[in-house]
Specification:
Strands 1-2-3-4-5-6-7-8 form an 8-stranded parallel barrel, surrounded by 9 helices. By secondary structure, it is of the alpha/beta class. The protein has 13 helices and 8 strands.
């Protein structure tokens, strides 16, 4: 089954789909290995991990595509990707969809912020005109070759222009053909509960700083079809790396060993060493 088709199945079932955020191929492999059914490529994490930069629209489309290609190649579950603003106008969006699709994504979201954009959980958002975002949605639909590719329309209107405008825009984006609506950064439980009731189609929730943090089942009961958890890997890695480096600097050694308690064999086999050694033996046997 194509990953695009599988993602549609996961979105359309009764149970909510949870896609943790990966910032690179290894974190994506860990998400798959721990049993999750989909992975989300976080733009925040991509910007932080590859360039050490904040998520304020500093990365190009080709830089984002390269990371999502690596992630898609590393796992055998659907990949949902951040495509920021589409990297330009409706003509640029045509190419964005083409390149993301070639990179192996099962779904992606495009937002209605002006460029350069900023993380939805920062402050100071500004929106492009409604007609401009509609043209981007139409371009997305025209550009996709696989009709099962899941197109997610994101609005940052809550922060920029208020909750009512977010709902208005979300429903227009849905009418224009977006498969899933992503109303970014509800600031309280009342807003969070209203979104699935007021949007005429599947909705996604972003479990990030501004969004009320609840057990996954609560979002499901509210009516959300999908949840992404972008920060889980990048923030965990940041904290763990920082703690270990401070320990090494302070003590001159790490108390749980040179590999920080991770058996070397476990790590290299997780990365596929056994598989390559087996293939190598089969190849060399025939010589």
């Amino acid at each position: 089954m194509r990953h695009t088709t599988r993602l549609r199945e996961l979105i359309n079932r009764k149970e909510i789909l949870l896609a943790p955020g990966a910032f690179d191929a290894m974190s994506a492999k860990l998400i798959e290995a721990t049993g999750f059914e989909a992975v989300y490529m976080t733009g925040f994490g991509t910007s932080a991990s590859i360039f050490g930069l904040p998520d304020i629209g500093l990365l190009t489309m080709t830089e984002m595509v390269e990371n999502v290609r690596r992630i898609s190649c590393a796992v055998d579950i659907p990949v949902i990707a951040d495509a920021d603003t589409g990297y330009g106008n409706h003509l640029n969006v045509l190419r964005t969809i083409e390149e993301y699709e070639k990179a192996g994504v099962a779904g992606l979201h495009i937002e209605d912020q002006i460029s350069p954009k900023r993380c939805g959980h920062m402050e100071g958002h500004r929106l492009i005109p409604l007609k401009e975002m509609v043209s981007k949605i139409r371009a997305s639909l025209k550009a996709r070759k696989d009709k099962d590719l899941v197109l997610i329309a994101r609005t940052d209107a809550i922060s920029a222009e208020g909750f009512d405008e977010a709902i208005r825009r979300g429903n227009i984006y849905r009418e224009e053909g977006a498969d899933v609506i992503f109303v970014e950064a509800p600031i309280n439980i009342e807003q969070l509960e209203k979104i699935p009731k007021l949007i005429n189609g599947p909705v996604m929730v972003n479990i990030a700083p501004k969004t009320p943090y609840l057990p996954l089942k609560k979002y499901e009961e509210m009516g959300y079809s999908m949840a992404i958890f972008p920060p889980i890997c990048i923030t965990t890695a940041y904290r763990a790396i920082k703690e270990k480096l401070l320990e090494l600097k302070r003590e001159g050694f790490v108390k749980d060993g040179v590999h920080s308690g991770v058996p070397f064999d476990e790590l290299v086999n997780f990365l596929g060493l056994k598989k390559y050694r087996t293939m190598e033996e089969e190849i060399l046997k025939r010589l």
